[in-house]
Amino acid sequence: MGKGGKDKGKGKDKGKGKDKGKKGGKKGGKKGDKGKGKAQVVVEPHRLEGVFVSKGKDDSLVTRNMDPGNSVYGEKRLSVNGDGDEKIEYRVWNPFRSKLGAGIVGGIANCAVKPGAKVLYLGGASGTTVSHVSDMIGPEGVVYAVEFSHRSGRDLTNMAKRRPNVVPIVEDARQPQRYRMLIGMVDVIFSDVAQPDQARIVTHNASFFLKNGGWVIISIKANCVDSTAAPEAVFAMEVDKLRKDGVKPKEQLTLEPYHRDHALVTGIYRAPKKKKDE
Ligand code: SAM
């Protein structure tokens, strides 16, 4: 894609199937399409680096596919003409299937997950969002994806075989010492473990792997932390825990309407000074 420019090309849909969401290339063509049967797809860079928008009746968030020709979870792919003969493929990112995707669509101001970033991703599951992070960070970046379920970890590992910038780690994120030899220092920790002690899990990992001044991005599911309290109160409590352990909050946004009673919180980490007797 020419930097900052619009890409035009044809829609293509070879996702594995069930996704009946928006489509980049409509069938049937439109005015000026000379009856070729497919409308052109226009892709523009998003305000945030590493993500793009496919323009249409409804705009869709897309990432540039690191593994052209393949979908990861049945998502749609769009092909557009790059410079010269080059074709560029994008994958549609459904915000209903991803907290980070919902945060971007919802207007997050800053996103440390960007081209070249080193990311520690806690709660990788089968790799739906991890795959878009892999697209966003590109070949210069790396995403270490930690997932403790062996079943999901298998899918994650298979996906990583086709994406050299993904390092799957099938481990418990509460035990970072078990995987510390696999990970270097990172620029950002993204967490979506949906656990009541998530704040502690994140800052514990930060103390091992996050550089000073690095970012944390956390998806908080209110009823995973306290199902009896009001979501806003839970979010405030979680932000407070992060603050006590060295995270200066920068942004908080709701993930409605995509994920009910969820918030995305970002902040900057500075390792707390150790007391002398520690
Ligand atoms: N982020 C994923 C995505 O968008 O594709 C979805 C994550 S899902 C909400 C939460 C995941 O965190 C589950 O797959 C669960 O197995 C994993 N998880 C929960 N606790 C964990 C822990 N202590 N260590 C590693 N993974 C954990």
Write a structural description.
The chain has helices spanning 99-105, 128-137, 150-161, 198-209, 222-225, 231-244; strands at 7-11, 40-45, 52-55, 60-64, 77-81, 87-92, 118-122, 142-146, 166-169, 186-191, 210-221, 247-254, 262-269. It has 278 residues and is an alpha/beta fold. The strands form two sheets. Strands 9-8-7-10-11-13-12 form a seven-stranded mixed sheet, with helices on both faces. It has a six-stranded antiparallel β-barrel with strand order 1-2-3-4-6-5. Helix 4 (198-209) packs parallel to helix 6 (231-244). It is globular. S-adenosylmethionine binds next to helix 2. S-adenosylmethionine (SAM) is lined by residues 98-99, 123, 125, 128-129, 146-149, 152, 172-174, 192-195.
Describe this structure in a few short sentences.
With 278 residues, the chain is α/β, with parallel strands linked by helices.
Short key terms for the protein model shown above:
alpha/beta, seven-stranded mixed beta sheet, 6 helices, 13 strands, binds S-adenosylmethionine
SSE order and pairing:
Elements (H helix, E strand, L loop, with lengths): L6 E5 L28 E6 L6 E4 L4 E5 L12 E5 L5 E6 L6 H7 L12 E5 L5 H10 L4 E5 L3 H12 L4 E4 L16 E6 L6 H12 E12 H4 L5 H14 L2 E8 L7 E8 L9
Parallel strand pairs: 7-8, 7-10, 8-9, 10-11
Antiparallel strand pairs: 1-2, 1-5, 2-3, 3-4, 4-6, 5-6, 11-13, 12-13
The structure holds S-adenosylmethionine.
The site of S-adenosylmethionine has 18 residues, from helix 2.
